[in-house]
Amino acid sequence: MTGSPFKFLGALVFIVLAYTATAQAANPQDFVQNMGDKAFASLSEEGLSQDQRTERFRGLLNEAFDLPRIARFTLGRYWRTATDEEKTEFITLFEKFVIQAYSSRFQDMSGQKLNVINAREVSASQVLVLSEIEIPGKAPVKINWRVRSKDDAHKIVDVLVQGISMSVTQRDEFAAVIRKTGGKVDGLIKALRRKTGSN
């Protein structure tokens, strides 16, 4: 259930997750840059068990990302046909899916650096923060962060890697699973239960 652009996501998510104290940054650019700087500075930490890493990832993911909003988007048009029970379970399973898929992928980012380049308003409440990751010996990776702001608090609602939206990619993959399982949201929920060991 993971497309090739997602090989970047586990590491990239940690960039904006490592220090939630900056969630009240003055603007979305500062929000992304400040957390990026602190995250890279902390990557040399050793001795963290996988369970500790997973729990840290879970807490920070919920702090920095608007997971319910992202989950609704990835379900696409099927959100309207899902029952209330299916919606609730899907959001829970979506969080588990993201944590399971990416919690172990942000361990080795030594020598890398996040540079915020610019930002542009995409709506009254959302800004696209343009940045790139410097990787020693390789071309920079362009990363854009869609940040939604409300009451001076910021939340990530999408990540674009080299122009490819992670949310759109996941929505397409989920839609393919639903089509293959009879066109019902229940088919995707069953697949996510198996994937996350939630049966």
What does this structure look like?
This protein has 199 residues and is α+β, with helices and mostly antiparallel strands. It has a single domain, classed as Roll (Nuclear Transport Factor 2, Chain: A), CATH 3.10.450. The chain is 47% helix and 20% strand. The protein has helices at residues 9-17, 28-42, 50-64, 67-75, 84-102, 166-180, 185-196; strands at residues 113-121, 126-134, 141-150, 153-161, 164-165. The protein has a 5-stranded antiparallel sheet with strand order 1-2-3-4-5. Strand 1 and strand 2 form a beta hairpin. Helix 5 (84-102) packs parallel to helix 7 and helix 6 packs across helix 7. The radius of gyration is 17 Å and the shape is globular. It starts with 8 loop residues before the first helix and ends with a helix.
| Series of secondary-structure elements, N-terminal to C-terminal | HHHHHEEEEEHH
Predict the CATH topology. Nuclear Transport Factor 2, Chain: A
Question: Main beta sheet, described?
Answer: 5 strands, antiparallel
Tell me, rounded to a whole number, the average pLDDT.
Answer: 82
Strand content: 15-25%
DSSP summary: helix tally: 7
CATH class designation: Alpha Beta
Question: What would CATH call the homologous superfamily?
Answer: Tgt2/MlaC
Q: How many distinct beta strands?
A: 5
- Radius of gyration equals 17 Å
Query: What is the approximate shape?
Result: globular
Under the CATH scheme, which architecture would be assigned? Roll
Percent range of helical residues: 40-55%
Q: Which residues sit in consecutive blocks of at least 5 with pLDDT less than 50?
A: 18-23
- Structural class designation: alpha+beta
Instruction: Give me the side-by-side strand order of the main sheet.
Output: 1-2-3-4-5
- N-to-C CA distance: 18 Å
The count of domains is: 1
